[in-house]
Amino acid sequence: MITNRPLEMTWDIRQRDPALLARLTRNDPGVQQVLDGLSAGCPIASTCRPFETPTYVRMKGHVRSFAAPTSGGGVVVFKGTEPLSNDYLDVFEQAYAARTNMYLSRIEWFLLIENEPFLGQAYGLAHHYATLAHEFIRDYAARFDTLPRVPFPLAVYRLPDADALAYAKNCQPYLSDRPQFSARERLDDLVKKGLGVFVYYYPGTPLRAAHARGVYPGSHEPGALKEGKVDFRAAIDKWLDLVAEMLVVGYVPTGSIHQGNCMQVQNLCVDGGACDIDSLEPMSRIKTDRDFLDALFYSLFMLTWSISFVLTNKRHHVDQVVFAMVWSELCERVARKSKGGPVDPRLALLKPLTLDVLLEPVYLKFLEDMRPHPIGTLMP
């Protein structure tokens, strides 16, 4: 089921930040055992289908990652090895056959919308994810003296070019070649830049809220919680805390242009954590107040959409009452969590939306430029 294959490791937390790694292994000593095993090579699963062994597990709904549970209750996740599996074309066949009329197949959605190869991991994005996650966790730990419930980057591998090219060639029959948007050209471009594997630790079972809500039937097995054990009240409370802490540390959760989106319901975990945090945007890179408000509103709209979905189990539904709650809760939580340390001065824009506030020039300009429904046009 699992073989270890020597791959080129280009990013390694053991060299990048041994002190932060030591903090993690104190919380979960089992991480070190998995890291020690990487000396034999990167684990490769022979199948893309769900499986469970004493050492590794692939949950349903996680077709491009599998995990090694640790003795401390977390998991080390291997994301992007699937182009080296034996049966990835079977998954391509199923995804192609299951496409809905007038919609892209999942294969082309990943390529044309998310700029990612289906079942694969673009090397550049894996490297960026590891670097950004490391910076955020380092800053978070310095501010709050603990580690957040987000993926902790451990390593990045680069797939051999020959394997990446073989994967691209085998995928050709499932890809369109339209002059406007060519999925074949997009995949060829990604493969030329390289495919990678992102290895990270998550401090629990990364069961996503969308999975627990049944968007992917049966996806909470094997090795995960059952839906009846999910406390969505507690999960929402922890998501609000996590977002407030992100803001205090100096990051907005996402912007309108992003890779992945940690505020989407398929990336928020039922234990209060979040995955796909490569959508984080450091506030230091945001130039103007208008851009800051744009990223802040978009992040909170996406969080609102996810909370509305969890509460109502309806897709494409954003509750304005829920948005008012999210905004109000974050005003209070950011104020409380920011005590005792500096924050980006633009967080002063996160304040109760009274009439006087909305009449301030920066808000008026933002509201004039806002699209009528910033969520509905973006959700598949």
Order of helices and strands: EEHHHEEEEEHHHEHHEHHEEHHHH
**Average predicted local confidence, pLDDT:** 88
- How much of the polypeptide forms β-strand, as a percent range? 5-15%
Strand order of the largest sheet: 2-8-9-7-6
Structure, explained:
- The chain contains 14 helices and eleven strands.
- The chain has 380 residues and is an alpha+beta fold.
- The chain has two domains: 1-206, no CATH class; 207-380, no CATH class.
- α7 runs antiparallel to α8 (183-193), α11 crosses α12 and α11 crosses α14 (361-369).
- The protein is globular, with a radius of gyration of 21 Å.
- The chain starts with a strand and ends in an 11-residue tail after the last helix.
